[in-house]
Amino acid sequence: MSQSEFLTQAEFARRQGWARSYVTELKRAGRLVMDADGKRVDLTASLALIRQTASPDKAAVAARHAEERGESRGESRPDDGEQDADPGKPEYQAARARREEANAGLA
Questions:
Q1: pTM metric for this prediction
Q2: Which of 43, 19, 49 is nearest to 31 (CA)?
Q3: How many of the other CB atoms lie within 10 Å of CB of 7?
Q4: How far is CA 46 from CA 13, 37, 42, 49, in A?
Q5: What is the model's pLDDT at position 61?
Q6: Region entry Disordered: which residue ranges (predicted)?
Q7: How far is the C-alpha of 4 from the C-alpha of 40, rounded, in Å?
Q8: Which residue has the higher pLDDT, 105 or 56?
Q9: Most exposed of 16, 32, 88, 100 (fewest Cβ within 10 Å)?
Q10: Which residues have CB under 8 Å from 27's CB, separation 6+?
Q11: Cα–Cα distances in Å, from 33 out to 14, 21, 30, 54?
Q12: Are 5 and 12 a contacting pair, CB within 8 Å?
């Protein structure tokens, strides 16, 4: 049996190529194996736990969410004219003017 390698959370994040905030999120979710002090991450045990608790099928989750939105793969949603704020549309310009007027009033 090999001895465990313990790293700080920052070292663990760097080694995996992840953001430190993601490692903190994993710790809060109980997906990291820490040493007795709770300050260092057990590298091999943590990676095994992360794999074990990973979402089993990300594609199935994405498909379910698309279905809930009324979309299916390969098909686009019908354009109802209210999708995104288009800077060329008059509604956008009017809203922007109201916002700038409100900000000027606050200043």
A1: 0.52
A2: 49
A3: 17
A4: 12, 15, 6, 5
A5: 77
A6: 54-107
A7: 11
A8: 105
A9: 88
A10: 9, 34
A11: 17, 17, 8, 15
A12: no
